[in-house]
Amino acid sequence: MSVVKLAPVFKDYLWGGTRLRDEFNKKCELEKVAESWELACHKQGGSTVASGINKGLSLEELIRLDKSVLGTSCSESDTFPLLIKLIDAKDDLSVQVHPDDEYALKVEGEPGKTEMWYVIDCDDDASLIYGFKDELSKEQFAQMIENGSLLDAVNKVKVHKGDVFFIPSGTLHAIGKGILIAEIQENSNTTYRVYDYGRVGADGKPRELHIEKAVEVTDTKPIKLRERYETIKADGCSFRLLEHCGYFSSAVFDVSQEVELCIDKRSFAHILFIEGSAKIASDEVLDAQKGDSFFIAAGTQSVRISGRCSFILTRNGFEEGFDRLVKEKP
Ligand code: ZN
Predict the structure, then answer these.
(1) What is the model's pLDDT at position 229?
(2) Rounded to 5°, angle at Cα 219 from 157 and 41
(3) pLDDT per position as a tens digit, 75-133
(4) pLDDT tens across 269-281, in order?
(5) Which of 115, 141, 189, 206 has the smallest number of Cβ neighbours within 10 A?
(6) Which superfamily, per CATH, for 3-217?
(7) Are 49 and 286 in contact (CB under 8 A)?
(8) Cα–ligand 1 centroid distance for 8 (angstroms)
(9) Longest dimension (CA), the chain
(10) Ranges for all domains in the chain classified under CATH 2.60.120.10
(11) 83: CA distance to ligand 1 center in Å?
């Protein structure tokens, strides 16, 4: 196998909408679809193979058949490194923070979470929370949570389609209502909630807050937003580099006709279609449309993607750029 289509798991958190089902081809029975986990091997949900001879296996089982599909960057680690989601926030998400690896492994038994958001679509007046306006002491932070004034201290940022937010572990953040994003992150579901707008969960009770842990792990200095991400023109496509960190490297590709990718042995690749439709040709030819996800094994020499489309390509670990993955046409 070189390329397989993936089917996601869905989460119906209370703040979710219906756009993933209505606009992103996500067939599911849930009334609300807050998240679809597009690339996932996590105990709280995993992707399923949806094409080829291994159709029906979980992604985890598929990897167990031949671990080399992950690539050399994964060979020493036992756990799958990434989690990629589509998130449809019809309502505000809670204000939250994630611990770093050291803290999370010690306290929660799983990695911490550094994440990145790519804004696929948003309402005109949408905004989100990205760190603090000014530096606070830990005591001030704890006090503002306690007396309900935290929102006065957070950095509210207006959001536009195509914006990128890099959220290192320890950064206070919240997705605002009317935002649909792709989230690329470490394979972790550990979240410490500090403020939930006084809402109650499906059981009628306020959702749990994790104030003590949050104060411990939060970096209370403001974080600077990166202004520009470089766009590169290549044969038949252009692509914009998104964040490249020690955990993941991503780019968003705009294809006008066709692009041929060569995924070297360093890492597998995941592609998530966010616009248009395409055919993906490797061992077999697969149809892709907006919302679809594909896993590409490390070492896949040729993947031809033809059609008018946009997709986010992500690989494990740090990668300088993606130029050498794009084959030049003869
Ligand atoms: Zn988060």
Answers:
(1) 87
(2) 85
(3) 666 789 999 999 999 999 999 999 999 999 999 998 999 999 999 999 999 999 999 99
(4) 999 999 999 999 9
(5) 206
(6) Jelly Rolls (2.60.120.10)
(7) no
(8) 19
(9) 65
(10) 3-217, 231-325
(11) 12
Judge contact between 79 and 112, C-beta under 8 A: no
Which CATH number is 231-325's, of 1.20.1440.120, 3.40.50.1820, 2.60.120.10, 3.40.50.20? 2.60.120.10
pLDDT of residue 200: 83
DSSP 92-111: PPPEEE---HHHHHHHTSS-
**β pairing state of 237-244 and 248-255:** antiparallel
- Can 64 be counted among the known catalytic residues? no
Q: What is the pLDDT of residues 167-214, one digit of tens each?
A: 999 999 999 999 999 999 999 989 999 999 888 887 888 888 899 999
pLDDT digits (tens, 9 = 90+) for 27-55: 988 999 999 999 999 999 999 999 999 99
Q: Which two tokens stand for residue 10?
A: 């869905």
Q: How far is the CA of 143 from the centre of ligand 1 (A)?
A: 22
**What's the gap in Å between 256 CA and the centre of ligand 1?**
33
Residue identified by tokens 């985890």 is: 60
- Amino acid (one-letter) located at 86: L
Active-site choice (19, 21, 193, 240): 193
Looking at the DSSP bridge assignments, the partners of residue 315 are 249, 269
User: What are the tokens at 47?
Assistant: 């992707």
* Best CA proximity match to 252, nearest among 305, 303, 312, 293: 312
Count of all residues that appear for the chain in the document: 330
